[in-house]
Design goal:
Blueprint: H1 16-30, E1 38-39, H2 41-48, H3 52-65, E2 69-71, E3 75-77, H4 83-104, H5 110-127, H6 134-148, H7 154-178, H8 181-196, H9 200-239
Antiparallel strand pairs: 1-3, 2-3
Helix pairs in contact: 1-3, 1-7, 2-3, 4-7, 4-9, 5-6, 5-8, 6-7, 7-9, 8-9
């Protein structure tokens, strides 16, 4: 695997381990390091101009978050999630996120609503540009996290963030492959409106449905995509 932007990648300050983890996490979520890719410590160390020690610690951190798997004799691998894995991740989100939204809504401020609305406006613009697909998952999380922020449950939020990290590259795929952009926009605006109106039950119900639909639609399209890919590879094998 060839890593991008080897020059000008030196990390300046802050914890080297955290900084390397942040860089790698971003590359994985954006799809710059694709599923199935092997992450080599020496290549990362060279790219970021650091020793292998913070790279090794960063990989352990990402392994704990579920973003990579450390496989004996192979090293760090970005796992390819199966359709059932995707459904499980979205089911976990559907259980956890309405609970934290329920606790947050009564304490959300006008500033919070303005920030969430501003992110949605930017989100709508970015969704019209397929060349900006890398921003979709990030903006989706920013919108949701603002609505959850007033629950003030940092450990709960850390769990939700880890689940979102594991599935964020698939959130982009869900929008891209299922053509779910219009529905996602409509539901995001409706969730925000319900939060403004302090309608806790309706907001939480819609959020749960929003997450479950995204997971189910992505599971179906991934199944179709990977079945077609397997059939293609089988046909190529029979021809050769």
């Amino acid at each position: 695997m060839e890593l991008q932007n080897a020059t000008d990648s030196a990390i300046q300050r802050q914890s080297l381990t955290s900084a390397v983890a942040d860089r790698l996490r971003e590359q994985i979520i954006r799809g710059e390091i694709p599923e199935g890719a092997q992450i080599r410590q020496d290549a990362i160390a060279t790219q970021f101009h650091v020793s292998r020690i913070p790279v090794r610690e960063a990989l352990r951190q990402l392994d704990a978050e579920g973003l990579i798997s450390i496989v004996p004799n192979r090293g760090a691998i970005v796992p390819a999630l199966s359709p059932d894995d995707i459904e499980e991740l979205f089911s976990i989100r559907a259980l956890l996120e309405p609970e934290i939204l329920k606790l947050s809504i009564p304490h959300l401020t006008d500033k919070d609503f303005s920030q969430a609305a501003a992110i949605l406006r930017k989100y709508v613009i970015e969704l019209r540009r397929e060349d900006h697909v890398s921003a979709w998952g990030r903006l989706n999380w920013q919108f949701h996290s603002i609505l959850y922020s007033r629950a003030v449950l940092p450990r709960f939020m850390a769990v939700i963030r880890n689940v979102n990290n594991s599935g964020e590259r698939y959130t982009r795929l869900q929008l891209y492959l299922t053509h779910g952009i219009e529905r996602a926009n409509e539901e995001h605006h409706k969730i925000l409106e319900l939060c403004r109106n302090r309608d806790v039950p309706a907001a939480c119900t819609l959020l749960r449905e929003h997450i479950l639909h995204a997971g189910q639609s992505l599971k179906e399209v991934l199944q179709q995509k990977r079945t077609a890919q397997a059939d293609s590879e089988e046909d190529e094998g029979s021809i050769s």
